[in-house]
Amino acid sequence: MNRRAFHRAPEGERRQDLIEATLDCIAEFGLKGATLRQIAIRAGVTAGLVRHYFDSKDQMVAEAYRTVIASLTEKAEAIEGNPETRLRDFIVINLTEPVANSRSLSLWAAFISQVRVDPTLAAIHREGYLGFRNALETLISDFLVANGRAPDGDACRRHAIAINGLMDGLWLEGCLAGDLFRESELVSIALTSIEAMLGLPLVPPHARTGNSN
Amino acid sequence: MNRRAFHRAPEGERRQDLIEATLDCIAEFGLKGATLRQIAIRAGVTAGLVRHYFDSKDQMVAEAYRTVIASLTEKAEAIEGNPETRLRDFIVINLTEPVANSRSLSLWAAFISQVRVDPTLAAIHREGYLGFRNALETLISDFLVANGRAPDGDACRRHAIAINGLMDGLWLEGCLAGDLFRESELVSIALTSIEAMLGLPLVPPHARTGNSN
DNA sequence: CCGCTTATTATACGCTTGAATAATTTCTGC
DNA sequence: GCAGAAATTATTCAAGCGTATAATAAGCGG
């Protein structure tokens, strides 16, 4: 009996591989096509191994969703610098690779369509969404203050909603039909539009000259 | 043998019922949970009947997607009135019920996540998306002309992309977490933002007084 | 009210799914 | 280098899937 050769993966690594394979399959075949067997093939193991690392397939999928959410928000949270450049960086990051590509959208859409079905996913979603929105609201508030504008609570909230919406929408367009847009065209459009909405210039990080008006 | 009683549905009606049941199931259980048996239960028939009206389940799902696309665009295309009010109406329609609700989003997301997998759905998607985008671009162009602005091709395109993005994003936010927003708050935010982006007021249809500046 | 068409049900089939279990290999500590 | 623990494979299982087909009921024209 020729049994397949294998090696034991280091601590935690196999878990990560399985999650990554899960996401690959969901992006490529949809939730419906992301079967244990497909995922196992992608991860280079056999299907049975999944249940050695996860209680069930559903649990693995949920953890995969956590990974997606984290990758969408962690880059935004890692932004440094002064308030006047952070907002701009945030916009650029969210509208360029690797946050904005068709794989991201496929994953995002697959999970979103399942959020109403699966309460576990719903909880993960809600947490991630609120985190993202709060991060942006803080960014905007800080930016306004740094530009000498009073942080009127309601106005700030409305700005956050609008900018969040604009970014989500442009991200969507970029993911859906990135080939229809010239290089960094979406970023440029976003910056111009947000400047108009806020009534303030978004000075590029490398060109700051103190013209804060 | 007690066979289930039934009645023959009028021409075309059963087809429509099946498509509607398909959409209900996709919205409620996701694509994975929208099985022939579930769909049949929802439509009040037995599963076998599906293949009397459609070549396959996939074909029925594709037709269901056409229905979704149509419902998203037909209301926009039916807008009448002068160029200065049509844009506003378009925005309002797309950010209020029934276009903006969680069911719409679930359906949209389910299909979008499948667009990369299924070429048939991809074709349907592309057609609908371009139609929507062109409709909006025309609306904006007409609006700008009516307000005495030269329809600079590139500027018009950029405006269309930005406004389309903003609307998509706000639609998304409204669908995802409509309970976080006050009544018609999203519409108000959209209108304010778009006015800022275009540098023109979006006069409400019932309050037109000729102040075209 | 009867016979024909066909819409509809009922049932069966082959296949895939997630899960469970048993068998086996790998690695670690001694 | 040998035991024992743990990771991995292999196999099996029941359930559910989409599809195919045969039986039956409904409605129509005569």
Automatic annotation (TrEMBL), chains A, B:
InterPro entries: BetI_C (IPR039538), DNA-bd_HTH_TetR-type_CS (IPR023772), Homeodomain-like_sf (IPR009057), HTH-type_TetR-like_transc_reg (IPR050109), HTH_TetR (IPR001647), Tet_transcr_reg_TetR-rel_C_sf (IPR036271). Residues 35-54 bind DNA. Pfam families: TetR_C_6, TetR_N. One of its GO terms (molecular function) is transcription cis-regulatory region binding. Residues 12-72 form the HTH tetR-type domain. Keywords: DNA-binding, Repressor, Transcription, Transcription regulation. This is TetR family transcriptional regulator. It comes from Pararhizobium antarcticum.
